[in-house]
Task: structure prediction
Amino acid sequence: TVFVKADFGDISDVVIDGNYLDGGSYTIFGGDTASHHVTNVSITDNTFGLSKLYGQLLTARWTGPTVVTGNTTTAGQPVGQPAEPSAAATA
Result:
């Protein structure tokens, strides 16, 4: 699981490329805070395992832009744009 959240300062130019990633509520998760932001994230050419609770990506809370391309699951399914948070995940 990868967690990128701007609790203590701005975060930019994050590259997550060519990895095997698995697990977590969301395998890649993160977000902005009231005063700090996550920007310029690239999530490319990764393979995602199937052991996640809600989804592979939850980056809707990042300011952006976020590039998501070339990612697949171990079952060969494409991993597309990040999911919106589910009600259970935000409760």
The chain has a mean pLDDT of 86. The longest helix spans residues 87-90.
